[in-house]
């Protein structure tokens, strides 16, 4: 009988993917974090040109120089993070950047602090690296923001890394500048690596994004084009880290994928160097969708504060698994909060990356659900 490697037994297929694949006909799927917009035209055109020019071969392992230079400028101008192009690795989405960070840093039994509730993959990536996942419980009364005290509470002599994610999936929380700076300083003082997942940095409605990499060079800054430019299928992202970390990241990256797709790198280059208006337009539309979802859920008697960033709402209900089941019966796919960690229990996550009209229809379907059941 086939016996998989033990590490595979430690992880499960993502609940969200399973729900996505099971979506019954006519159901509205609000389970995925997938912007419904087309990838902006100028990006698609750049890829077509590159394809016609035969740019279809391996690139250097860490990515084409023009793209790494553009990323370096972007990080310096927008994030105040200093990273030379040789300390940037172009990856297959943020997912691969997270995966190789943990592979490069974590030894068996090392502890990695991750937000709870938090993005599902963090737990799996820590387990695949044979590390020990230590959840940092985020409190709803603090709008699910991670604070330096939360982190200090969990640090032991085995702590190797902390994963931070602002704006957050699944809560939409946007961390405060002081907290980000405080956590970066803790990482620096304790010789711990801070892995900062910034994929939603541009999708903010209230507040501002600060990269911890501006306060410490113990930070691995991870970002991707997936959410900001509606480029999820291109699978392109990047990471910046200090030279000694980059050297190790590159080894894992090289044997893992050789390099990111050549055409996707061109798409990323065009996203960074081409017109930016499309991003503001998409964010304005996400805000309109957020306002709709918050208003309609509040009208149903589900009270919660409007999320400040990303494109998820994470409200609490009397019985979240019952609510999710009722929603599915009504033809709306949402995710139970417990999938994102123990502190997500009692909540559900609804993604408002879907079209406005679909969200209106979904809210009409949810409205009759009896919340007391
Ligand atoms: N990080 C967070 C917080 C996410 O929500 C996601 C996707 O949902 C990712 C990383 C993965 O991004 P990518 O599609 O670029 O691999």
Q: Could you describe the 3D structure shown?
A:
The protein is of the alpha/beta class and 373 residues long. The chain folds into two domains: 11-39 and 277-366, Alpha-Beta Complex (Aspartate Aminotransferase, domain 1); 41-273, Type I PLP-dependent aspartate aminotransferase-like (Major domain) (Aspartate Aminotransferase, domain 2, 3-Layer(aba) Sandwich). Helices cover 41% and strands 13% of the residues. The chain is built from 13 helices and twelve strands. The strands form three sheets. The protein has a seven-stranded mixed β-sheet, with helices on both faces. The protein has a three-stranded antiparallel β-sheet with strand order 9-12-11. Strands 1-10 form a two-stranded parallel sheet. Strand 5, helix 8 (177-190) and strand 6 (193-197) form a beta-alpha-beta unit. Helix 5 (93-105) packs parallel to helix 6 (120-128) and helix 11 runs parallel beside helix 13 (356-366). The longest helix is centred in the C-terminal third of the chain and has 23 residues, at 277-299. The radius of gyration is 20 Å and the shape is globular. The N and C termini lie far apart (44 Å). The mean pLDDT is 96. Pyridoxal-5'-phosphate binds at residues 33, 93-95, 119, 165, 169, 197, 199, 224, 226, 232, 237.
Protein traits:
alpha/beta, Aspartate Aminotransferase, domain 1, Aspartate Aminotransferase, domain 2, 2 domains, seven-stranded mixed β-sheet, three-stranded antiparallel β-sheet, 13 helices, binds pyridoxal-5'-phosphate
């Amino acid at each position: 009988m086939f016996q998989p490697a033990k590490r595979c037994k430690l992880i499960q297929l993502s609940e969200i993917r399973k729900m996505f694949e099971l979506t019954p006909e006519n159901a509205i799927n609000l389970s995925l974090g997938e912007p419904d917009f087309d990838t902006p035209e100028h990006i698609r055109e750049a890829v077509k040109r590159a394809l016609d020019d035969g740019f279809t071969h391996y690139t250097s392992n860490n990515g084409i120089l023009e793209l790494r230079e553009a990323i370096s400028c972007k990080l310096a101008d927008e994030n105040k993070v200093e990273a030379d192009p040789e300390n940037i690795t172009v990856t297959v989405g943020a997912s691969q950047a997270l995966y190789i960070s943990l592979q490069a840093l974590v030894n068996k039994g090392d502890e990695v602090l991750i937000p709870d509730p938090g993005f599902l993959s963090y737990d799996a990536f820590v387990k695949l690296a044979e590390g020990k996942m230590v959840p940092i419980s985020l409190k709803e009364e603090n709008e699910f923001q991670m604070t330096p005290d939360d982190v200090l509470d969990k640090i032991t002599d085995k702590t190797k890394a902390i994963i931070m994610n602002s704006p957050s999936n699944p809560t939409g929380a946007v961390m405060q500048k002081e907290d980000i700076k405080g956590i970066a300083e803790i990482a620096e003082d304790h010789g711990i690596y801070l892995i900062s997942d910034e994929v939603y940095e541009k999708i903010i409605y209230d507040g501002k994004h600060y990269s911890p990499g501006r306060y410490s060079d113990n930070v691995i800054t991870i970002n991707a084009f997936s959410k900001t430019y509606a480029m999820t299928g291109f699978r392109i992202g990047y990471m910046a880290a200090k030279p000694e970390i980059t050297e190790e990241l590159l080894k894992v990256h090289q044997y893992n994928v050789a390099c990111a797709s050549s055409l996707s790198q061109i798409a990323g280059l065009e996203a960074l160097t081409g017109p930016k208006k499309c991003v503001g337009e998409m964010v304005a539309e996400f805000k309109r969708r957020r306002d709709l979802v918050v208003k309609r859920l509040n009208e149903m008697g589900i009270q919660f504060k409007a999320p400040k960033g990303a494109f998820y709402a994470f409200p609490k209900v009397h019985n979240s698994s019952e609510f999710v089941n009722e929603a599915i019966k009504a033809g709306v796919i949402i995710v139970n909060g417990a999938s994102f960690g123990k502190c997500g229990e009692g909540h559900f996550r609804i993604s408002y990356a879907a079209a406005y009209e679909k969200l209106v229809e979904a809210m009409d379907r949810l409205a009759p659900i009896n919340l007391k059941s």
